């Protein structure tokens, strides 16, 4: 087996369509020698159908990251397919509609709590659930959208992402002793199902299309996926708690 991830065993969450960032990660990972196990949320038959479009059909395990039974049983279910894990990809985000699109001042705590549970706390939950299968050299990688700034319509999802960025640094601190890294990829806007659920998302699309120094494709998930692969590989052995921007350089600009 050859490729950047030759022989690595990965757990990839977050596939729901073939536009999902996670789908690109799974596809590229297989093309680069990895064995991939997927998790799916809710519409499992849909995820299973999408999984068949990968170069190698991948098994799908049901996982709602807010479900403690699913989390407790995850390691055993993964063990049915692989004998350990070298990498875990968290590609999960959700916020109720009240939390997005300009409703920042009115969103009720219950909705904000859901956004933070699914999009922030779950990063830790997933890592801990997978930990019994991991060993030194392992990596956890997640996806963020630059949370150092307040964006027009991102609202509480932005707050959840700020929490995710912090959670990744804390995970890096707590898992460092076990030789496990935690890093995030900060991607520019991509037309996925999650993105389409954000009212006013086209504002991001226009801004990136006009201003990203390297230019930006709204439909090419591969650059973000490539960065995930690099962070999962052995080529960032001393990097943890880091955020790698894959946004055409947009974050480097001033107002
Ligand atoms: N699309 C973008 O513009 C963009 C930019 C930067 C970061 N991201 C991040 O990338 C990640 C992947 O999103 P995407 O854009 O590929 O969209 P997507 O809609 O394809 O993926 C989101 C995934 O989250 C899963 N999910 C939601 N609630 C869940 C739960 N309770 N348990 C388990 N899974 C759950 C969905 O099933 C789906 O597979 C998210 O963290 C998102 O915030 C997206």
From TrEMBL:
Documented EC number(s): 1.3.1.9
Pathway(s) annotated for this protein in UniProt: Lipid metabolism
Chain sites annotated for binding NAD(+): 14, 20-21, 64-65, 92, 161
A Gene Ontology BP annotation from the UniProt entry: fatty acid biosynthetic process
CDD domains per record: ENR_SDR (cd05372)
EC supergroup of this enzyme: oxidoreductase
Stored Pfam families: adh_short_C2
Annotated coiled-coil segments of the chain: none
Reaction(s) the record says it catalyses: a 2,3-saturated acyl-[ACP] + NAD(+) = a (2E)-enoyl-[ACP] + NADH + H(+)
UniProt keyword Transferase present: no
UniProt: substrate binding residues: 95
Keyword Oxidoreductase: yes
GO molecular function term, any single one: enoyl-[acyl-carrier-protein] reductase (NADH) activity
Keyword list, A-Z: Fatty acid biosynthesis, Fatty acid metabolism, Lipid biosynthesis, Lipid metabolism, NAD, Oxidoreductase
InterPro entries named among the record's database cross-references: Enoyl-ACP_Rdtase_NADH (IPR014358), NAD(P)-bd_dom_sf (IPR036291), SDR_fam (IPR002347)
Family designation: Belongs to the short-chain dehydrogenases/reductases (SDR) family. FabI subfamily.
Protein's name in the database: Enoyl-[acyl-carrier-protein] reductase [NADH]
Source species: Micromonospora musae
């Amino acid at each position: 087996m050859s490729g950047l991830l030759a022989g690595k065993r990965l757990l990839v969450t977050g596939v729901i369509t073939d536009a999902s960032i996670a789908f690109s990660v799974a596809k590229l990972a297989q093309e680069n020698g990895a064995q991939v196990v997927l998790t799916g949320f809710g519409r499992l038959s849909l995820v299973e159908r999408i999984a068949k479009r990968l170069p190698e059909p991948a098994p799908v395990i049901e996982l709602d990251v807010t479900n403690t039974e699913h989390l407790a049983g995850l390691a055993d279910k993964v063990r049915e397919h692989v004998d350990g894990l070298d990498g875990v990809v968290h590609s999960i985000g959700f916020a109720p509609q009240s939390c997005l699109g300009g409703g920042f001042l009115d969103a009720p705590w219950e909705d904000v709590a859901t956004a933070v549970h699914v999009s922030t706390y779950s990063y830790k939950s997933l890592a801990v659930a997978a930990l019994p299968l991991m060993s030194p050299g392992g990596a956890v990688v997640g996806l963020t959208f630059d949370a150092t700034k307040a964006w027009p319509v991102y609202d509480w999802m932005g707050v959840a992402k700020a929490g995710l960025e912090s959670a990744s640094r804390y995970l890096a601190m707590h898992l460092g002793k076990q030789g496990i890294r935690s890093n995030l990829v900060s991607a520019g806007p991509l037309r996925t199902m999650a993105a389409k659920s954000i009212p006013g998302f086209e504002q991001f699309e226009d801004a990136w299309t006009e201003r990203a120094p390297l230019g930006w494709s709204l439909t090419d998930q591969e650059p973000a996926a490539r960065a995930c692969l690099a962070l999962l590989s052995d080529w960032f052995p001393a990097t943890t708690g880091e955020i790698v921007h894959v946004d055409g350089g947009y974050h480097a600009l001033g107002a």
